[in-house]
């Protein structure tokens, strides 16, 4: 049995996914309603959000201070599986929110024999809640959450990175990849949720940049992109 399937963690994750559903329900209904009424595609909505972030990122995410915005159970299990597959012992995550994806990743570290996950989150209230959830999961010894803007908090991750999970501000996917890139090695995995930014996808899918990158259908329409550093 895996750490993910232990009673302590499976009960906690079930509760957190239920809390996320309740906390984010109105937001999801608004987005779906807006798309239906305006006829806008996901790509158009993404372009609008990216432009809004570029003018005032703090305000955008302050509005979501009580939203989980977390990965689905299926994507969480995929994160766990990927971290096990590449035997990750050092993981970096951009965008911790309430710590749901961090629990999946840290559970994989536990089953890989130990290691470290460095996460980062802009909203102080979310940092506190993520730390509490990770402690409840019994995984606090494996996780460091850095409070602040990832452009600063991830400038020094202190060692090689086996797996990078990108799930923060949509406009920062390429800048954060470039920030952490010197710590990636051939075989390191880069996973992105909500990868809609053109600059990120164009860079990652150009093989001359050293990655093999492709969309994957874990959660259709949610911009799941899998990449491996090849050289
Ligand atoms: C989609 S949520 C992350 C969900 C999380 N990975 C999970 O599955 O539980 C994105 C988070 O990134 C945070 N964020 C946005 N911009 C950031 C930045 N520049 N630095 C650090 N965190 C940021 C937001 O506050 C938000 O909580």
UniProtKB/TrEMBL annotation:
Gene3D superfamilies: Vaccinia Virus protein VP39. InterPro entries: SAM-dependent_MTases_sf, SAM_O-MeTrfase. CDD domains: AdoMet_MTases. Keywords: Methyltransferase, S-adenosyl-L-methionine, Transferase. The keyword Phosphoprotein does not apply. This is O-methyltransferase YrrM.
């Amino acid at each position: 049995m895996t750490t993910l399937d232990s009673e302590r963690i499976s009960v906690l994750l079930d509760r957190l996914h239920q809390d996320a559903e309740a906390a984010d329900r109105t937001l999801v209904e608004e987005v779906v309603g807006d798309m239906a009424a305006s006829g806008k595609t996901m790509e158009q909505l993404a372009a609008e959000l990216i432009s809004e972030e570029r003018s005032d990122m703090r305000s955008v995410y302050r509005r979501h201070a009580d939203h989980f915005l977390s990965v689905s159970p299926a994507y969480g299990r995929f994160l766990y599986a990927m971290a096990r597959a590449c035997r990750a012992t050092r993981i970096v995550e951009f965008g911790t929110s309430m710590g749901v994806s961090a629990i999946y990743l840290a559970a994989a570290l536990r089953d890989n024999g130990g290691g470290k996950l460095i996460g980062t989150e802009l909203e102080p209230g979310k940092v506190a809640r993520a730390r509490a959830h990770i402690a409840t999961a019994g995984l606090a010894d494996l996780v460091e959450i850095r409070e602040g803007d990832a452009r600063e908090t991830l400038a020094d991750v202190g060692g090689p990175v086996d797996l990078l999970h990108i799930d923060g501000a949509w406009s920062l996917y390429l800048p954060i990849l470039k920030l952490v890139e010197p710590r990636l090695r051939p075989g390191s995995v880069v996973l992105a949720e909500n990868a809609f930014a053109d600059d990120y996808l164009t860079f990652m899918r150009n093989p001359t940049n050293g990655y093999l990158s492709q969309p994957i259908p874990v959660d259709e329409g949610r911009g799941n992109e899998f990449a491996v550093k090849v050289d």
